[in-house]
Specification:
GO terms for molecular function: carbohydrate binding. By secondary structure, this protein is mainly beta. The chain has four domains: 102 residues, Immunoglobulin-like, CATH 2.60.40.1510; 81 residues, Immunoglobulins (Immunoglobulin-like), CATH 2.60.40.10; 109 residues, Immunoglobulins (Immunoglobulin-like); 103 residues, Immunoglobulins (Immunoglobulin-like). 11% of the residues lie in helices and 53% in strands. The chain has two helices and 35 strands. The strands form eight sheets. The chain has a five-stranded antiparallel β-sheet with strand order 1-3-8-5-6, with no helix packed on it. It has a five-stranded mixed β-sheet with strand order 2-10-9-4-7, with helices on one face.
């Protein structure tokens, strides 16, 4: 009895389903008797452009819905084809019996498309129609272009903003915004995420940016919002070379690029032992500062003095200037290369000498490295004297002198035999690879005097004569 009742229930359900089937067919079926008309079934474009066909579909049968279909053939890879109605993409349409409705076929071609004709078959209900796209110019091998203008919330251009196109996490192309805040980026065809970043501003991005070959996509105005606290630091010369014995100075600019005023702390990390560092607000100031207040949008110039100990050696030293704000710390790496200070000096006990004509002058010269930290190398002494004079230096050169060391050379000056008595100048030029020093010496040449000899002889003669006269006539 129970089995008989079940059979009856199943039969009734089947009958109900059968009575509802025609209605479902009218709403879902794809066999609607339709006619499709297109006033302009052929369009001429360049590769990468979009062709649009307005289709009028007339229902010759009962009211119902039907699918919107199309079929493409050769060379349409990477094309984007769709049906639209009122700027919405659609794939089904309801057409009352005897009425006509319009739908649009949109075909976005690829920039790689070759020159030629491309047929597309459209099927709506039982009706079909062929439309054609004639490509007259290809853009194969070219790129698409992305354009944008980057500004802040106040409408001021943001130069130096980085605008990039990304395929997931991979950067494909990008550039920095110009002084006018503009970018124009060439990129291969594809769908990307556009990201705009700039230190001091919150990042901006837009997904689903379609780049098409031979076409320009304009993102328009890209507004960036400033961070509440942010600083920009510029060091004029982060790598310096200085001589031992000097106090090098770094000049830097601190700009408050955030939305709020801020006070910044100033310090140095990695300072070598026994070194001293100080921040100042002017290059000649004697007072140091440990923090500085900068209003939003303004900038101040700072000077960092480094004071090495007297015993510092030649070499490269690395340290870090640390500037702390309300939100974070900023670090600027600084490099200082210290070289020795070179000071070549010469010395003699006298710079004026007197000799008789025909004599030879000899004196000692001391060569000293009065610098700090660096050796003097290849020291040579060149002597300049009047024509006919001969000057020699022994030894003629000194290989090297460390800081504080000295060496003595002997200078020999030989005037010509026929020289006229007078005062003459001899110049010594000491040169090395690092420095040079010049000294002048005065040499006074005198005639040999015979007056005294003659006087002695005369006096001796007179004395001898008197003695003779005294011996001969003295007793008378």
């Amino acid at each position: 009895m129970a089995g008989r009742r079940s059979s009856i229930c199943i039969l009734l359900a089947l009958l109900l389903a059968a009575s509802a089937a025609p209605g479902v067919s009218a709403a879902q079926g794809g066999t609607m008797q339709t006619e499709i008309r297109c006033d302009f079934p052929g369009e001429v474009i360049e590769a990468g452009d979009t062709a649009v066909f307005d289709l009028a579909v007339t229902n010759r049968g009962d009211t119902g819905t039907c699918l919107l279909n199309y079929w493409t053939y050769r060379g349409t890879d990477n094309w984007k084809i769709r049906f639209e109605s009122d700027d919405r993409e659609v794939y089904r349409m309801l057409i009352p019996a005897g009425e006509t409705k319009t739908v649009r076929l949109v075909a976005e071609t690829s920039g790689h498309a070759a020159v030629g004709e491309y047929p597309i078959r459209v099927g709506i209900g039982e009706g079909t129609i062929w439309v054609y796209i004639q490509v007259t110019k290809t853009h194969s091998g070219e790129t698409g272009t992305l354009e944008a203008t980057v500004v802040d919330k106040e409408g001021n251009v943001v130069k130096g903003a980085d605008v990039g196109l990304y395929d997931r996490d991979t950067r494909i192309e990008g550039m920095l915004a110009t002084a006018e805040g503009k970018v124009s980026i060439g990129a291969p065809m594809g769908t990307y995420t556009a990201k705009v970043t700039r230190p001091g501003y919150r990042p901006w991005e837009k997904k689903g940016v379609d780049i098409r070959i031979g076409q320009t996509v304009d993102l328009g105005i890209v507004p960036l919002e400033k961070e509440n606290f942010f600083a920009e630091i510029r060091v004029k010369s982060p790598s310096r070379i200085a001589a031992i014995g000097t106090n090098p100075q770094y000049e830097m600019t601190l700009k408050n690029a955030g939305r709020n005023d801020d006070t910044y702390s100033l310090s140095v990390q990695g300072l070598p032992e026994q070194w001293y560092a100080r921040f100042k607000e002017s290059s000649t100031a004697t007072e140091e500062v440990s923090e500085i207040y900068v209003p939003s949008g303004e900038e101040k110039t700072l000077y960092l003095d480094l004071i090495p100990p007297y015993s510092v050696g030649v070499g490269e030293y690395n340290l870090t200037a640390v500037i702390g704000s309300s939100a974070r710390e900023y670090e600027e790496n600084l490099t200082l290369r210290l070289r020795g200070s070179y000071d070549l000096r010469t010395y003699t006990k006298s710079y004026r000498h007197e000799i008789n004509r025909g004599d030879t002058l000899t004196f000692d010269m001391t060569v000293t490295n009065a610098g700090v930290g660096g050796a003097l190398t290849n020291i040579g002494i060149n002597m300049s004297a009047p024509e006919g004079w001969r000057v020699t230096v022994d030894p003629a050169s000194v290989a090297s002198l460390e800081a504080g060391e000295r060496a003595t050379v002997q200078v020999t000056v030989i005037p010509p035999a026929d020289i006229v008595a007078g005062e003459y100048k001899v110049v010594a030029l000491a040169k090395c690879d690092q420095d040079e020093e010049e000294d002048e010496y005065r040499v006074v040449v005198k005639e040999q005097s015979y007056v005294a000899v003659l006087g002695i002889l005369v006096m001796a003669g007179i004395g001898a004569g008197l003695w003779y006269m005294f011996r001969k006539y003295g007793r008378r």
